[in-house]
Amino acid sequence: DFVADLVTGTGIFGIAKAIRAAIMMVIGEHTKSEKVERLLRRMTYFYLIITLAKYLEWYARFKDIIPRESREGCKRLYVKLSEKFQLRKLRNKVVAHIIDDDTGKPLTSEEVNRLFQGLMDKVEEDLEGSMGEKIKGFPMNKFCLWVDSQRVDTIQKARDAIRKRYNLTDEELFPGLHSL
């Protein structure tokens, strides 16, 4: 389910050393370390953005049956992802499609980086607000920290409450995901 996808997506950067070595073998030792870091960052961003977009679909489908104790947290996350972070637009523009609907052309690397930086700025602002301090370090860590700090817990608690209250299976909650 997508809770496991979020945990995997936020943890993948922690095992990046082995992945970095494998990438260097495939694309060549001459490749600059920054390029490998960028590839890993993009892979992690894409994975998390797709998974969070699944949450938006899940919330839209199940919001009416989310138990009271989980409802407000789920709604706050939905609003933040859909309105403040404009996650669907980011997913469609950067992750899911080759051609930008606004320009009719593929996005350049610079445009993709600018869109990701806009997301990182919003994530950093949100982290500072919720944690009361400036988060230092690599931007990727900030995105993973943002997803991991309470977002996974919010989704997991809601999923478990729905499953328990309505006696639903994972297949009923996440149609098609378990047949992959």
Descriptors:
0% strand, 8 helices, mainly alpha, 180 residues
Number of helices: 8
Mean pLDDT across the residues is 79
- N-end to C-end Cα span: 11 Å
Proportion of residues in extended strands: under 5%
Structural class: mainly alpha
Major pleated sheet: none
Provide a descriptive summary of the structure in words.
- By secondary structure, the protein is mainly alpha-helical.
- It has 8 helices and no strands.
- The relative contact order is 0.15.
- The protein has helices at residues 2-11, 16-27, 33-62, 68-84, 87-96, 109-131, 139-166, 170-173.
- Helix 1 packs antiparallel against helix 3.
- It is 74% helix and 0% strand.
- The N and C termini lie close together (11 Å).
Produce a short descriptive summary.
The chain is an all-alpha fold and 180 residues long.
Give the helices and strands, then pairings.
Elements: H1 2-11, H2 16-27, H3 33-62, H4 68-84, H5 87-96, H6 109-131, H7 139-166, H8 170-173
Helix pairs in contact: 1-3, 1-7, 2-3, 3-4, 3-5, 3-7, 4-7, 6-7
